[in-house]
Each structure stands twice: as structure tokens, then as C-alpha cells.
Amino acid sequence: MSGDIRELYQQMIMDHNKNPRNFHAMTDADRMVEGYNPLCGDHFKVYLKLEGDVIKDISFDGSGCAISKSSASMMTAVLKGKTRAEARGLFEEVHKMLSREIGEPFDAAKVGKLATLGGVCEFPSRVKCASLAWHTMLEGLEPSGKQVTTE
Ligand code: ZN
User: What separation in Å is there between the alpha carbon of 127 and the centre of ligand 1?
Assistant: First the structure.
């Protein structure tokens, strides 16, 4: 990753951390799931409103580090209006991107703006921060009844 792009990515993460999108509780949500990352102290709730197969609305609240918060913010911005299948597909691409070996390329076209988070894999301790919101969202879409924690 070149220095310019890295800087641009850092700016995007800072921006989402400072001005998180869809950062509010949803009183009429169909699903509400809590997720914890005890390693860092990140703790968020993800709210989903579903209409048939479509994510009609999605929001989150809670607190956490810049990476976890900006990842959750970007996720909500991207998933609004997506189908369950599209959301699951994106989850898998993001998961692949975050858990790849350092230096290994990933398909940025498949994740769009979320590629911003791709540099996080260089910091293994932050990968759980970046993936927390995604695991929480997936439990909302496909409930397993398990508590969402990165441990
Ligand atoms: Zn964190």
C-alpha cells in the first residue's frame, strides 16, 4: 500500500470515528444484538430493521476504539438496502480481507470503500476491533443464540 493511499485510508477511519454514520439506538428495530471485544473493551449494539429479505435500516451505538467504531459506521452505511445474501457475501469478503496474511493482496473491488479497513491486518491485535461489528450484524441476520464476543 503506498503512503498516499495509507494516509487517505487513515483519514477515512478518523472521519468515521469522529462522525459515525447511523450512530443511534433504534427503538423499533426487529433485531438488536450486542457484541463485545474484551481484548480492547469495544462494546456495541447493532440494530436491524428487516423487510422481507432486505435490510431496510441498520444502526449501532455503544463505545469502542477508533477502528471498531469506524468499521461499524462504514458497515451500516454500506449495508442499508442490501439483501441478506449480499450482506453475508460482504461479511465473508471483509472477513477474508481482515484475516489474510500480511502482504497478501485482496480483491478491493469486492469490498468497495471497506477496503479502507484492509490495512488493519498489519496490526493483528486490531483485527478483532475491525471485525466486531460484522460478527454482531451477522448474528442479527442469522441468529445462533450465542453471545457475540471476539474471544
Ligand atoms: Zn478496539
Answer: 8
CATH number of the CATH domain containing 36: 3.90.1010.10
More confident residue, 11 or 88: 88
Q: How many structural domains is the chain composed of?
A: 1
Whether residue 40 lies inside any domain: the answer is yes
What's the CA-to-centroid distance between 52 and ligand 1, angstroms?
33
What separation in Å is there between the alpha carbon of 53 and the centre of ligand 1?
Answer: 31
Is the distance from CB of 132 to CB of 68 less than 8 angstroms? yes
**pLDDT, tens digit, for every residue of 12-25?**
889 999 999 999 99
123 lies in some domain:
yes
Instruction: Tell me the CA–centroid distance for residue 110 and ligand 1, in Å.
Output: 25
Ligand 1: centre distance to CA 126 (Å): 6
**Cut 0.85: pTM above it:** yes
